[in-house]
Each structure stands twice: as C-alpha cells, then as structure tokens.
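Is uracil placement plausible here? Inputs below.
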Amino acid sequence: MGSRRGCEDLIRAKRVRVNGEIAELGSKVDPTTDIITVDGKRITFPQKHTYVLLYKPQGVVSTVKDPQGRPKVIDLVSIPGVRLFPVGRLDYQTSGLLLLTDDGELTYLLTHPKFGVWKTYHAFVQGTPSQEALKRMREGLPLEDGRTSPARVRLVGKGHQKNSILEISLHEGRKRQVRRMCEFIGHPVLELERKRFAFLNLGGLQSGEYRFLSPDEVHRLKKLALGDQGGRKPHLSRENKQ
Ligand code: URA
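Reply from A.M.:
I modeled the complex. Tokens:
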C-alpha cells in the first residue's frame, strides 16, 4: 500500500481496520487470518504456503514414502520447488477429497483430534443396514481402539444388487474408521469416497485432478481450526457446516 511512513499515515488517519476494528500503530496482525481493510477495501497478501485440494483416485497411497513402491498422491501434484504433505490420510483404496500443503501448522491443527474437523464419506456397503444399525453407528460403536464419537449417518441410496450407499460424517480420523464401523454393523465397505472436508467439496474435479485453495478458503480453514469452540462442537460452527 506504500512505504512504511505512508502506511503509518494511513493508520494514523484511521483508514485501516483489522477485523473491523480501527488499527493502531504497532499492533500485530496475522495476514493469513486477520481481515485487513484500507478505506473499507480488503487487502490481500501473497501466500507463504501452498494449499492444494486433490481428488485422490483409488489405488494411490497418501504416504510420502511407500516401501512397496505404489503410486503416491504427491506424484499427482508436482509443483516445482514445493514439498507438499497430505493433511491426514485416505486408505490406498479410498478415493476423494484430500488436502495437501507445505503448511505444517495448519496440517497439525486440521488433523489433531481435539480440533475435530468434520469429514463426510460415501460408503458403498454390502447389503442394507437396518435403522437400528444406523442408530448404533450414530451413537458410537465399541471398536477395538475405543468407542467412536457421535457420527452423522444416513442411507442415501441403493447400489447394485442389494447393496446400499451410506453418507457418514465423522469428526474423528482414526485409521480405517469408516471401514471398521461398517464392518462392525455387519455391512462391509465395497467402495469408499470422501466427499467433503469441513466446508470444502470436490466441486467439478475429476478423479486425479487438483486445484489450489483460494486465500479465502485458507483463511476459513484456519479460522475453523483455531475457532472459539476449538472444534469440539463443530456442528455449532457456521464454518464447519456440512
Ligand atoms: N475411513 C476409512 O475407513 N478409510 C479412509 O480412507 C478414511 C476414513
């Protein structure tokens, strides 16, 4: 916006606001999470990090290394000079929305169980679970690594033959959790796809394609991860609405 002196003049003239409050000289801001306006117009900054939303295909590992030499998600997104890491994992045979970034802090926030970002899956399962089985999934199942937290589960369609499609939203991220939950109720998963991660969805992407997150999406993700509620009750948060 100008030289240091010039910017100080803007601040003194009360033309600068941070999150709606008039800025003061010397106050600290985080340009990636704070909304800074000059004369009511938001100013943006070049991003320090790279954030990618990938439609992960089946048959690709989410780990950065694979001793078995299978295809890796990071090979699908090659950006010169940038080392990306997946935000959490999807199983080898699970497809769907996977974020990749070189921002370790955001990865930590989004994957830590206490922040509990909601993730939504479509599971093609064998047979059709009863209403009672769906209720048990919603209320929590006693898996071998402990009881699952309340989940949102609904039957959204019929697959081939007598199979069905469940929509399952979780704010936990345990290993193979959806597959283990479905197995537990006696309806093993035939195919699994992650449809949403917090407010993000696959949009018009085809399997194997990716796009960059916008600064606004990154801002919303950070706000969500750091939100007042610490992510513990994300269903109450507007940002985390599914
Ligand atoms: N649950 C699973 O079982 N697998 C995944 O890849 C993600 C969630």
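Short version: Helices lie at 4-12, 73-76, 104-111, 131-139, 177-184, 215-226.
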